[in-house]
Amino acid sequence: GAGVSQSPSNKVTEKGKDVELRCDPISGHTALYWYRQSLGQGLEFLIYFQGNSAPDKSGLPSDRFSAERTGGSVSTLTIQRTQQEDSAVYLCASSLAPGRGSEKLFFGSGTQLSVL
Amino acid sequence: TQLLEQSPQFLSIQEGENLTVYCNSSSVFSSLQWYRQEPGEGPVLLVTVVTGGEVKKLKRLTFQFGDARKDSSLHITAAQPGDTGLYLCAGARGDFGNEKLTFGTGTRLTIIP
Predict the structure, then answer these.
(1) B100 with A33: CB under 8 angstroms?
(2) Cβ pair A105:B45 closer than 8 A
(3) Can you give the CATH number for the domain in which B26 is found?
(4) Distance between CA B48 and CA B69 in Å, rounded?
(5) Domains, chain A, with CATH or none
(6) What pLDDT, in 10s, does the model give residues B5-51?
(7) How many structural domains does chain B have?
(8) Chain centroid to CA A45: how far?
(9) Residues of B in contact with A98 (CB under 8 A)
(10) Which residues contact A63 (CB under 8 A, 6 or more apart)?
(11) B103 near A CB under 8 A
């Protein structure tokens, strides 16, 4: 696709339910990143994929959070037993390859998650 | 622990005025990026600075990386309503640049026509 695509754009769920957020990166981009953004704030790193592998999962807030990437393309972020503090915008980004800070990240528009 | 502090958090100025926003840290970064984010959208990369003391210009925007690579500034000349948005700085550490960018707290800029 022309850009990074995320779905759904909005998700409202009840506390305790599981949710899946999807990211479709730009074709050919080997690196994929998940970030979380609380209302009006900066971005919090969650996880990074190089191909299908996740060398860095250190940002995942708890074991309720998991992510996978298949075929070096689409990624799914799963949050189990959602809590109200999970409410945020979840942003996905992709880049051609992890670089020395000069690689350009392309972000999707995010999924606004609201946990009631 | 927030490694990158941005100031001011909010800034509202008249069209045509000049402004500077700051991004400060006690940590050294191998590179620093500036993004602009509009409501309902993801951040869009504006510039990457890599060398201490580096200055880059993007039309009316001037970006500077501190000599010690711990801080950066963004100066906008003759601000326009289209400059309105959330400005985020993001630092990369180590040899691998993008794996774990540390984002600043953001500066929300509003340009009043």
Answers:
(1) no
(2) yes
(3) 2.60.40.10
(4) 12
(5) 5-108 (2.60.40.10)
(6) 999 999 999 999 999 999 999 999 988 999 999 989 999 999 999 89
(7) 1
(8) 9
(9) 96-99
(10) none
(11) yes
pLDDT for A9 beyond 90: yes
- Among all residues of chain A, which has the CA nearest to that of B35? A105
B85/B108 Cα distance (integer angstroms): 6
Which residues span the domain enclosing B75? 5-112
Q: B18 and B10 in contact (C-beta within 8 Å)?
A: no
Of A31, A42, A100, the CB nearest to B104: A42
Task: List pLDDT tens digits, range A92-114.
Answer: 999 887 655 556 889 999 999 99
| Cα–Cα distance, B17 to B37 (Å, whole number) | 21
pLDDT of residue B57: 96
DSSP assignment string, A43-100: EEEEEEEETTEEEE-TT--STTEEEEE-TTS-EEEEE-S--GGG-EEEEEEEESS--S
